[in-house]
Design a protein that fits this description.
The protein is α+β, with helices and mostly antiparallel strands. It is built from 28 helices and 39 strands.
Length: 965
């Protein structure tokens, strides 16, 4: 059979093989065999690149070559390989052009085309990897002027390697699988560096400048080539492709049937499983991952929620997502732009990020509907939003109950008018303490037992007595007795028991409650022999129902702010409050009107009323209409008369400026700076912490002042109105009481900076780490915390940061001194006596050990090696080095140079001269950071915090109102 698109013939035969032949060369290209089955028939798909072959035990469907084009996106451009040419596509103009021809594979077998492509925009270099020779790469330098012409054939530099990828502008990494190492090469294809990798990797991918993402069978790691450290590790299914977000903060790892979203340090965020093969993906500008399967375009939100955007007729490979346009390559290598409707995932993303104003505008303008969206909103706890989409009354009723919207629930229950819905409405209304709605729901379902109990707990004795009469008309003896119990009506209970034939019980009830006349009459009826005996020696107590806490009316509810979705939209249930007002008049009682009570056994109720037995008591009211539930009409509400105001305008007296209020009551420097009183703030800091150098604090003073004020523009002809922003302001706060100023610096920011400083120290970026730690020291005087515990944490932070600043300054000083090895060793030694985190202490000990060992101070180096081993290092390489140094030193425990360092004698390091101050020697301290100095430094500016004068008097750090109270 001739292939439709290639110059090949496919044949099968009874020798249990399928063979592929090259028509032009008349040679066999590839052979597929089965063990026990003979092939009988072949067919090709009319449109797709698929073949089918039938054999003895069934059939197989297969394709000869993979169809995914190799491509690489760089900014607004796309480079991809097609038909032995490198092509260039510009997304903004949708211009497609040929760049250069690329080498045709020399082997005759199939599947030898480009698999991956990597591009360096600064050098205009392209790396193309393929399976030729078991895995190889070709490096092309594209001339700048050849884009769009494609007529020159640049010479490619080739090499063997599992995969190759650019790691810097003029460096690329090649995976050497046989030795499990990465070769870093320059653009001349020369090896610059070799680096072993920590896992048995079979592919490498780009992971930021100088970093590689290495793939093994069941995991991926991010490896720093410079420091040879593993920055992140994640267990995954076998990963086929990786896609970095535009800001390189997140990465999507695509396997055959799963997508794993992780951070740049491979911290797992979510995993998505697909039943159909995942083909490609790209990040959009909002941080949503758009991906394709064989027949769908889908999305994945940062929290792992996913959904279908549209279906596909043929598979595509997404290259870029811009707004609602997806750029992609199809299997023929043609660029396509597909416009999608992004409304659904943008709506879900806005809900996730709490951008409720955006959600409201989308609800107003979009046609978002469907059971899936309603179910999603319910699942995520937004039933009030789903209410705006729903027209079906049953669904509206369920959502209204879930969101606690009683008015809409009442409106929907009226439309549905089913017993079960009224019951559920009554349960929810009772939960909210809305007695009126509960009463209405029980009336509609004729649930007299619950209604009686409701009147009991709300103290509505008048209606409870009416319930007694209704039970009497309905000939409901138990209902009568319960209502009589609720009312505390003893005579009625005796009467009911007597009418029911329970004369002994009636006699006992009458006797115990002191109704002697009734008891005598009943005793006569019973006779002496049948009189029940009453317990002797016991004092009876009157059984009366307890008084309710609140009589009638609804239960008090907390006053809460309306939600963003309540009233902010053109509410579909706008009429609900009106319906509630209507429900408050006589219509509420119609279901219980005596003329409508059904199931009466003693004839028609109207007849009963006409013969005067009950009507005599009820002729004033004319039935049970719940008049006491009528809401007053709006017109009757008294309104303030406009003319009642005085015609003379009296200007209000000016109040005290907020900045003055802030400074009057506070001794905190930060609040004085926020008020704009910089001079008093400086005086406070000078008195409390001995600070004299305020230059580092200038920018923070300005930030505090501007951050605690906001400005309103009234008219163009008048200046802006300055408004104070208060800390912890709430709507319920009194307008005449001023709170303290809102401050732009807080303790959690310092904790984040501390973590960043630790990370920089770990990675050896000491200048950056020192900048961060100094920034923390400079911010602490302007921090305000609430509790005593937080005050202690702030003071502890000063000590931690001071140790790092001192240590890093010594280390940076050591690196400047090239020609004085003795001083270098001393500074490295002193660094190990700073109070550091354990990982940093190990690195400092390793550093000092290395410096001393190289300078032949073997005894000192051995001491550092012992200290390092005592910390039980987690990195095996550190422990191994320490043991080797210890072994080498034990053969010759001498020092080539005499150091000013005695590790046996406890000491602190002077923050200015970097010499040890041993225990018992005189010293002076910085009043702010508590760094220690030799006495000659007294009166000088502290070299550690760079703020306070060494040895000056100060009252101490004041950073909380709790310290003043």
């Amino acid at each position: 059979m001739f292939h439709a698109k290639q110059d090949i013939i496919v044949s099968n035969s009874e020798d249990k093989s399928i063979r592929v032949w090259d028509v032009t060369k008349r040679t066999g290209v590839q052979t597929f065999r089965r063990e026990h089955d003979r092939f009988w028939i072949l067919a090709s798909h009319p449109e797709m690149n698929l073949l089918a072959a039938g054999h003895d035990s069934g059939m197989i469907v297969f394709k000869l070559e993979r169809e995914r084009p190799a491509f690489c996106v760089s900014g607004d451009s796309l480079f991809y390989a097609k038909d032995r040419f490198l092509r260039f596509y510009e997304f903004s103009t949708q211009r497609d052009s040929q760049v250069i021809p690329i080498r045709r594979p020399g082997s005759t077998s199939l599947n030898q085309g480009p698999r991956t492509l990597s591009y360096s925009p600064t050098e205009n270099a392209v790396l193309i990897c393929s399976d030729v020779d078991g895995g190889s790469y070709e490096l092309y330098i594209v001339p700048k002027d050849s884009i769009g012409r494609g007529d020159t054939v640049p010479e490619a530099k080739r090499g063997i390697g599992g995969s190759a990828v650019f790691v810097a502008r003029n460096r690329f990494a090649v995976l050497d699988k046989s030795n499990n190492q990465v070769l870093v090469k320059n653009l001349k294809n020369e090896i610059v560096k070799k680096s072993g990798i920590p896992i048995t990797a079979d592919a490498i991918f780009y992971a930021g400048t100088g970093n590689l993402l290495c793939r093994a069978e069941d995991r991926v790691v991010i490896f720093d080539l410079q420091q040879r450290l593993v920055l992140g590790d994640l267990q995954t299914p076998f990963v086929k492709y990786i896609v970095w977000s535009n800001d390189m903060e997140n990465v999507a790892l695509l396997s055959k049937h799963a997508i794993i979203i992780a951070s740049k340090k491979l911290v797992h965020q979510c995993t998505l499983h697909e039943t159909i093969r995942v083909k490609s993906g790209a990040w959009d500008d909002n941080g949503v991952f758009i991906y394709t399967t064989l027949n769908h375009i889908k999305y994945c939100l940062p929290n792992g929620d996913s959904g279908i955007i549209r279906t596909l007729e043929v598979p595509i490979y997404i290259t870029k997502v811009s707004g609602n346009t997806i750029f992609c390559l199809d299997r023929d290598g043609k660029n396509r732009a597909i416009v999608i409707d992004a409304t659904e995932y943008i709506f879900k993303l806005s809900l996730l990020k709490k951008k409720y104003d955006h959600v409201m505008s989308m609800i107003r303008s979009s046609q978002l509907c469907g059971q899936a969206m309603i179910a999603y909103l319910q699942q995520k706890g937004f039933p009030e939003v789903a209410l705006h989409f729903v027209k079906d009354e049953r669904t509206r009723f369920n959502l209204a109950l879930e969101s606690g919207n009683i008015q809409i629930a009442v409106a929907s229950a009226k439309e549905i008018d089913e017993k079960d819905h009224w019951y559920r409405l009554g349960v929810e209304a009772l939960r909210q303490g809305n007695a009126g709605i509960v009463e209405y729901a029980y009336q509609r379902t004729k649930n007299f037992e619950r209604l009686s109990f409701l009147y009991l707990i709300t103290g509505n004795m008048e209606k409870l007595s009416k319930m007694l009469k209704i039970a009497e008309v309905k000939n409901d003896v138990m209902g009568q007795f319960h209502n009589a119990l609720y009312l505390g009506d003893v005579r009625e209970r005796v009467k009911i028991l007597e009418n029911a034939g329970h004369l002994p019980l009636a006699y006992v009830t009458a006797s115990v409650h002191g109704l002697h006349d009734v008891a005598e009459r009943l005793a006569a009826e019973l006779g002496e022999d049948n009189l029940p005996s009453l317990p002797e020696g016991k004092v009876p107590s009157l059984l009366m129902p307890p008084s309710p806490v609140m009589c009638a009316g609804d239960w008090p509810l907390l006053r809460v702010m309306k939600g963003i979705f309540e009233g902010g939209l053109d509410s579909v249930g706008k009429g609900a409050p009106d319906e509630y007002e209507e429900a408050g008049d006589a219509d509420w009682g119609e279901e219980l009107d005596m003329a409508e009570v059904d199931g009466v056994q003693n004839g028609d109720i109207e007849a009963v009323l006409e013969d005067g037995e009950v009507a005599e008591e009820n002729d004033e009211e004319g039935g049970w209409d719940l008049e006491d539930l009528e809401l007053p009409p709006e017109a009757d509400t008294p309104k303030a008369s406009v003319n009642a105001r005085s015609s003379v305008f009296v200007a209000p007296t000016p109040g005290m400026p907020v900045s003055q209020i802030w400074t009057q009551r506070s001794s905190l420097a930060a609040e004085h700076a926020a008020a704009g009183n910089f001079d008093t703030a400086m005086r406070l800091l000078s008195r409390q912490l001995g600070i004299r150098n305020f230059a580092p604090l200038r920018a923070m003073f300005l930030d505090l002042h501007t951050g605690s004020h906001t400005y309103l523009r009234a008219f163009s002809s008048v200046p802006a109105i300055q408004l104070a922003v208060e800390r912890g302001w709430t709507e319920s706060a009194s307008p005449n009481v001023r709170g303290p100023p809102a401050l732009v610096f807080n303790f959690s920011q310092l904790e984040e900076k501390l973590k960043a400083g630790y990370r920089s120290t770990t990675t050896g970026r000491f200048t950056e780490a020192l900048r961060l730690f100094l920034s923390i020291l400079h911010t602490i005087p302007l921090i305000v915390v609430e509790s005593r515990r937080e005050v202690d944490e702030v003071k502890e932070l000063v000590i931690i940061v001071k140790e790092y600043v001192l240590g890093l300054k010594m280390e940076l000083k050591r690196r400047e001194i090239r020609d004085d090895p003795v001083r270098q060793m001393e500074l490295a030694a002193y660094f190990t006596h700073c109070n550091l985190q354990m990982p940093h202490l190990r690195l400092a000990l390793l550093n000092a050990m290395t410096v001393c060992y190289k300078a032949r101070n073997l005894s000192t180096a051995a001491n550092f090696a012992r200290r390092l081993l005592e910390t039980n290092p987690t990195v095996e390489n550190q422990a191994k080095t320490a043991r080797q140094v210890l072994q080498a030193a034990e053969r010759n425990m001498t020092d080539a140079s005499q150091l000013n360092y005695d590790f046996r004698n406890p000491f602190v390091v002077c923050g200015a001269t970097y010499v040890p101050i041993y225990r018992g020697q005189k010293d002076v301290a910085c009043p702010f950071c508590s760094s220690r100095f030799v006495p000659s430094q007294e009166g000088q500016l502290c070299d550690v915090c760079e703020l306070a004068l060494v040895g000056s008097d100060a009252s101490g750090l004041l950073c909380s109102p709790s310290q003043i109270r």
